Amino acid sequence: MRSADWYGGNSKDSYIHRAWMRRGNPDSAFNATRPQIAIINTASDLAPCNLHLDEVAQSVKNGIWEAGGVPHNLPMVSLGETNVRPTAMLWRNMVAMATEEMIRANPVDGVVLLGGCDKTIPALLMGAASVNLPAIVVPGGPMLNGTFKGERLGCGTGVWKFSEAVRAGTMSQEDFNNSEKSMIRSKGHCNTMGTASTMGSLAEALGMVLPGTAGTPAVDSRLLQAAHESGIRIVDMVSEDLKPTDIMTIGSFTNAIVALGAIGGSTNAVVHLLAIAGRLGIKLTLDDFDRIGSRIPLLVNLQPAGEYLMEDLFRAGGLAAVMKEVEKHLDRSAITVTGKPYVDSLNGAEIYDNKVIKKYESPLQPEAGIAVLRGNIAPDGAVIKPAAASQNLLVHTGKAVIFESIEDFHARIDDPSLDVDENSVLVLRGCGPKGYPGMPEVSNMAIPKKLLEKGVLDLVRICDGRMSGTAFGTVVLHVSPEAALGGPLAKLQNGDIIELNVPARTLNVKISDAELAARVPSQAMTDALARPARGWEHLYIEHVEQAHLGADLDFLRGASGSQTPRESH
User: Fold this and answer.
1) 8 Å CB contact between 93 and 68
2) Average pLDDT score over the chain
């Protein structure tokens, strides 16, 4: 066991390590054959979607003890998507780095990763991949369905829908305020197919979750059972030396991308999967998302692309029932934390409600995976989620209306004199990884009030930032290179003709290459990186990569392994 480098022998150093860790533990807790298991726990009162993970951790502990291991709770920085400013994405890489360093620094032989809210599961997987000790994920699970006035109320999605209704004058402020009390019905993360639900599902498709666990509601006792079983399984994984590099292969990423299309998952999964792959040395690119997943049929009828919520998906057969329908697209060699092929876990999976999970032959949409766009606006790529877009806008030409920052957007979007109509293309820049910094979820810009009042509910929108997985609309995002780096997005001007063609996978401004090259970036974009920064923000701006590479830090690509650090006593 790796932990024997701390606890084994009779030296002064081993005495110190054992003595300070006894705290009532039996002598056998330091036996060289008993694996020491860290439970990387992102529970936090300020990350409400992860608040219940202390309870989950206890069930994991019970399973580890039962299997002969020794569990240790290891709290990790937790990122609450709804509270953390300026954006949780600014710290995803910090959590990944802290996870990596704390696993390596401590006497542990394997890890259980507890995450729920959007950035926590990706960050934990990134960190664990870089150490490459046996690891297993227990997703925290979605909250129960919310309702308001007898209708399903999806968290996140309902916010975008209702806030626009208030601005359009079709919903009262009183109803809007009252709906707030109904949205978050229980513990757990968002109940829509937002980023949290997506990443929990994709962690299972990657093979890092006990099959059948992802999507289990946070309040369901079966989540605690799965947590207990995960505690048992990690002990066996240590004895088998089954590591993330054995599980998360290129075939596993193929399965995750197929799952992303079939469930109508969040566009945020693109940057997260790219970053995880980067830690593993797997050459995953934006083009792989389009090649593998863009024409996968949408089978899950969940908000924001559909009607239902995660609790409905769970009772309808869950992720396994969905993946059984797309089995012919899956890599059959990819394994899971069980050591067995992922496809074996789908045997016997059934659809119990075909209103929630559609058959392959009669999907909600025939082609709904993430589409990758390129052109003179986005030479390194941009993405769009057709499942959440308006079909009539997927091929569109219109005049650009430029906003230099999210603050500029908020200040002017409802100005009656704003030169905008139903054919306009809203362009928001300065929201990329370096320019914001942190690449915030602001791309799903609100529709101008004067257009809402005319019944216009969607416009083409373009941004170098991200959007919430709970959001909807015809939104082109992750434009790379970002505007703050002087990318073409920084050179667009009001009135430029923008041409979007999703079937052709193109995004262009209709001017000559010579004219575009001759233009200089807007002054606001030139100024974006001139502001002083310190601490993590400074480090992040200096080293963060662009969206098409996963927005990880350049010096964190790859792995450093699990070699025991030098002794300090």
Assistant:
1) no
2) 95
